[in-house]
Amino acid sequence: MSAALAEKVDDDLWSAIGDPTRRRMLDLLLVEGEGTATTLSRHLPVTRQAVTKHLGVLDRVGLVRATPAGREKRYQVDETQLARAVAQLASVGSAWDARLQRIKRIAEAIQRTKQD
Amino acid sequence: MEFGTIEREIYVEASPEVVFEVVSSPDHLKRWWPDDARYEPAPGATGEIVFGDPDADGAVVAFTVVDARPPRTFSFRWTHPAGEAAAEGNSLLVTFELTPSGGGTLLKMTESGFREMGWEVAVLEQQYREHVAGWDFYLPRLVPYAATLQVRS
């Protein structure tokens, strides 16, 4: 995968997770193990059609996987892709680690200057 | 699973007064984070931080001071849309809490708001990471004792 494509996928992944209804759907799917647009819409203040649309977004970025179930599709969370999204947030954390190290070094250097 | 908050703690061998200055003043901020910073370190003050060259592919990001109580607390919001007041839901909240400890300071940082802001900050962070390499170059020029410092991100 080219770097540009990887970036695009990541952007979409974050957009998919950026929506509160979709996060709630992921939470529900994780708790229940699986769900359809109908079962999910019972727990959400949105229509089944809206849920279907959101599931489509999650499916496109690979956060959920669908299997046919009668006239509907049954969805499960893709743990690997979810772990990837979580890892990206972790990289935000490591950026803070680097910043805090710099804060520490700058502050300690100033302190030493004052003591000299 | 919680996408909400990042929490970090670090011990600094410097007084809370010094650490407060480093985490709050725009002149210091741009030595450990953005390339430029323009704001008054006073509660409610609005300003901006700049990553890279805004005329090229850099970014100007809104920055609003929430709380400034030397030498204990400094907090700000960032990433809210320009011209919009910073509030929960449109920005990330960063809080520094300083506690005297031994001869130094325990510095606690929390950043929250990711449930709403996750992907936008990911984009910013990516831009930021592109500049991280630059810190190895900048910092030695800015900090005395540079020769003895090992700057690693």
Summarize the structure.
Chain A is mostly helical and 116 residues long.
Structure explained in plain terms:
The complex is a heterodimer of chains A (116) and B (153). Chain A is mainly alpha-helical. Chain A has one domain (3-115): Winged helix-like DNA-binding domain superfamily/Winged helix DNA-binding domain (Arc Repressor Mutant, subunit A), CATH 1.10.10.10. Chain A is built from five helices and two strands, in the order ααααββα. The model of chain A is unreliable at 1-9 (pLDDT under 50). Chain B is of the alpha+beta class and 153 residues long. Chain B has one domain (5-148): START domain (Alpha-D-Glucose-1,6-Bisphosphate, Chain A, domain 4, 2-Layer Sandwich), CATH 3.30.530.20. Chain B is 29% helix and 35% strand. Chain B has three helices and seven strands. In chain B, a hairpin with a 7-residue loop joins β3 (46-51) and β4 (59-69). Chain B is globular, with a radius of gyration of 16 Å. The two termini of chain B are 27 Å apart. The A-B interface holds A 7, 10-11, 13-15, 17-18, 20, 23, 27, 30, 86, 88-89, 91-93, 95-114 and B 1, 3, 6, 8, 10-15, 18-19, 21-23, 28, 31-33, 105, 107, 109, 111, 114-123, 125-126, 128-129, 132, 135, 139, 142-145, 149, 151-153.
